[in-house]
Amino acid sequence: MGILGRAVAAAVLAAAAAVGTIGTAAGAVLPPPGETSPGRQARAWLPEPSGPYPIGTTAVHLTDTAREDPWHPGQRRELMISLWYPTSRPAAGDDRAPYMEPAAGRHFDGPDGVGLLNYGTTPGRTDWSAIRTHARRDAPALPGGPRPVVLYSPGLGDPRTWGTALVEDLASRGYLVVTVDHTYEASEVAFPGGDLAPSVLPGMLGQPGLDVGAVLRKAMDTRVADTRFVLDQLAALGERPGLPAGVAGALDLGRIGMVGQSAGGFTALQTMHDDPRIAAGINMDGQLHFPGPDGHTGVFLPSVAEDGLDRPFLLMGTGSEDSGGYRDQPGWNALWRHSTGWHADVTLTGSRHGSYTDAQPLLPQLARQGVLGADQLRKDVGDIRPGRAELATRSYVASFFDRWLRGQDDHLLDGPSARFPEMAYER
């Protein structure tokens, strides 16, 4: 999903769709007030992780002293990442880390936040920071590592928290997962000390004559540079004071995978193309092409699509109009034809672009409390039952990384599965 203001012209919306990053709020009708009383904020819950391990999490502030911020010239590039990993004791009560920091949650739920711009939720109706994860903040890592590492990249405009259900599930299965915020592109990034960095994109994308393709290419270049910098920093985590005990030693940097949704899926495969440290990647509904040079006609293929990949990757499509299988998208088709590494393509029938994100478990709960209407909910996550979508996503992602990072094959990815008839499969 992308972050686009309501005043963006239809031509800009069509151009942004070329990377699978369209926001739903342009032209969206806000739902009427729900049954909750005035002033009462809606609440929601994340699904329980399915693995055997309790989860810990910690946030890390990084500064790339060698790189100027591309969105704010004159200052160094700063990022926030979170690490999610097995720990020894489950979180309970106030030990459970919040889904979003309070300032970030308020902005996400405001008139300029992604809650409205991407998903059509009514501003001021949801207490996002009151949602609790299943992870104990700053817990020590469980002995027994090192563990395979998986990076997670969110969609354009989405914060790194927007894939927490999947991230927690991977951590509960024994992975160390690193989530990355792309500062000034993400809806908002909360830094230590209370500073909040909101996205610059809503203002930019409303400018007349803007070359949307150039902006999106800049965003992708920045994302790849951010991710490669994070990989560099993971190798030096042991030198950082204040990191929870055992976390740095739990990283197996010889077994790294990456998964992302929408622009995050594009980021995963493009970074994999550019950086051999990533051994396997999953693209969840992220198109691999840009608008043409004038922002309206033709497409521009990135190097990952033109060159292909020589390592394993999985494409996960949805039932959205501009998604489907690899034959339905020029970038996916080119990648498929040019790749020599193992690859497969699955499409989740009845899903929509938000189905591989936390929109799938959270928005149906919020819709029941009047935060968004039924039509908007279908645009966001389709008609598939939330529990089935969540189970399918977790199962296919875990199967892929177990196979290529752990050498454990449950054969789910060998072909169509009777367990998941809603998943169309191609090899």
From TrEMBL:
GO terms for molecular function: 1-alkyl-2-acetylglycerophosphocholine esterase activity. It comes from the Bacteria. The keyword Hydrolase applies. Keywords: Hydrolase, Lipid degradation, Lipid metabolism, Signal. The keyword Mitochondrion does not apply. Residues 1-25 form the signal peptide. GO terms for biological process: lipid catabolic process. It holds the Pfam family PAF-AH_p_II. This is Esterase. It comes from Kitasatospora xanthocidica.
